[in-house]
Design brief:
single chain; 161 residues; mainly alpha; Four Helix Bundle (Hemerythrin (Met), subunit A); 5 helices; elongated; binds protoporphyrin IX containing FE; metal-binding; transmembrane helix; transmembrane; CYB561/CYBRD1-like; transport
Length: 161
């Protein structure tokens, strides 16, 4: 007699909920760290540390965490039966993450420029630059596959559905 088939599929819900909780915890910790213990945030300031502080903020919350939320969008977007909405939310979040990542790198270049420090001299800087470039290529591929999801069209699509 053939053995009974078993399903090894497990629910992604607990992992997704844990992911959202981690998002809240890390966001809170980074904001408290930067505002309370690292003199705050600014794009223009005589206190250059404030300019530097934008880099970890944008990279951790804007780039890594929002990209994580984009990955979980297929699970956490309420309209579960409409894959187009989920894809649109996913692409919007990935685009925001890419924008934050690029801005975070602009900020650290600005900080180096204003403090007369050299650019791209560490392993961190090269690996970080490669990561952003590969991420950008991936988002661009997505946009080419779904031209309707591009920019303003995407917003129009979301508000009409
Ligand atoms: C995915 C996340 C991150 C990426 C892609 C990234 C990328 C980069 C890049 C490309 C540079 C070079 C800028 C230049 O040479 O002018 C840089 C510099 C720097 N980053 Fe990040 N970064 C990330 C996260 C962080 C975090 C979380 C911190 C600190 C908490 C940090 C601290 C620094 C520091 C101190 C520098 C200047 C020194 C150096 O070039 O290594 N970075 N980062």
């Amino acid at each position: 007699m053939a053995p009974k088939s078993r399903s090894y599929q497990i629910s992604a819900t607990p992992v997704t909920v844990f992911g959202h909780l981690l998002f809240i915890a890390v966001t809170t910790l980074v904001i408290v760290w930067l505002l309370k213990f690292r003199e705050g945030l600014a794009f223009e300031s005589a206190n250059k540390l404030k300019i530097f502080n934008l880099h970890p903020l944008l990279m951790v919350i804007g780039f890594i965490l929002i990209a994580g939320e984009a990955i979980m969008a297929y699970k956490s977007t309420p309209s579960r039966r409409d894959i187009k909405v989920q894809k649109a939310v996913h692409l919007t979040l990935q685009t925001i993450a890419l924008g934050c990542g690029i801005f975070g790198i602009v900020v650290i270049f600005k900080f180096h420029d204003e403090t007369n420090m050299p650019d791209m001299v560490t392993l961190h800087s090269w690996l970080g630059m490669i990561a952003i470039c590969l991420f950008g290529l991936q988002v661009q591929n997505h946009i080419q596959e779904q031209p309707i999801c591009h920019g303003i069209l995407l917003v129009a699509y979301l508000s009409s559905s």
